[in-house]
Each structure stands twice: as structure tokens, then as C-alpha cells.
Amino acid sequence: MKKFNLVTSYTPVALSTLNDDRANYQLWLTQHGGPADVTVGLTNFDDVEAFHKKFGVPLAGTPSFLDDDANRFRQKFMQEELDEYNEAYMAGDMLKAADALVDLVYVALGTASMMGLPWQQLWDEVQRANMSKVRATGADDSRSVRKSALDVVKPEGWKAPDHRAALGDGANWPTFYASTGGNPVGAVFPSTTFDASQGAGVPVESVVRVPADDTEGGV
Length: 219
Known about the structure:
mainly alpha, two-stranded parallel ribbon, globular
């Protein structure tokens, strides 16, 4: 991903809505050497999905585990970004630390996108559960497994996130063979045959959804 140096003389316009903010960013980007055709979605997850579709990254159409090779690739990717954040912290470099955090979230969202997870529905359930927690009374709070005064803990009667409405009960979660361009039932995949591990890309308009009766990929 190409990086652009900030221009110190640039002053952002006061913005009142998310769409205005993104439009302002696009304008700034084109004025300072960025691509004119950049698209910015309504949410971070939309942005990542647009990125994946632009480059033909295979996306599961239903909640699925990634195959072993793809899973190892994504785990290594996330660990690399976490390591970069730690290196930036140790070096006292705020610019690199911030960039590493954004990249870490980008890769995590990308993994969820490839797995076909209904992200907003999952997020909302976790948010519900998190907002019903309480602040730890101190590092010695018995409810704090992290033993930190900064911790937020589970009070008595707390209800954990329940993702069964979004994901089912786990009886038939398939494996999505992203490493070989596989297409389990309901998968989203490029209409041309390719090996995803080779980084083959296709335009957005060639991404299609496969109906169950036309699918031959493994599950």
C-alpha cells in the first residue's frame, strides 16, 4: 500500500457528517498525489471489502473457516502488524505506531471478510455485552484477570455475547478453500479460474455469487 506524506500546511475543513469527512479525505488525497479513483465505504468493513473485491481476494459467502494455508497466512499477517506496533512503541514513533494499529485492524477485518462473517451483527452483540461491564476497582480486583486498574470487568449476572443468531450453532460450518480459489456453497469468487495464493486479481464487476446448485468446491 502506497504511503503519502502529510502536508503540514493542510488544514481540514470542519465537518459535520461522516460522508463529508470521507469526501474531504478523497479531495485531500487527490490533491497530494493520491489516486483519483479511490473509493471509501460507509464503514471500515465496507472499505476492506472494497479492497478485497478490487484485487480479487476470494470471499466466503457464508460464515466459514479458512483452509489451513490461508489461515496461517492471515495469522502471520496479523502478528506482523502487532509486532510493528510494538517496535514503533519501543522507538517512540507515533506515526508508525498509529499506522501499525490501523493496519492491524485492516488485516483483522480482512480476515473476517474472507471468512464471510456478518461483521456488524457480531460487533453489535459484542458492544452490547461490553457496555454492560463495569470498571475494575483496582489492580487487586478479583474479577480482573489482567490485574490492572485500567481493566473493565464482568459484573455478577453479566451475559456474554451470543453469536448463534449470526453464525448458527456450529453444526455445519464449512471450510472455505481460499488458498486454491475454492468455492464452497454460496461463496463469492472471481468468475475466472485462478489460484488465490498467487495474488491473481480481477475487476470488481467479475466477482459473482455462486448458487448452491452450481457449486462444486469442497466444504
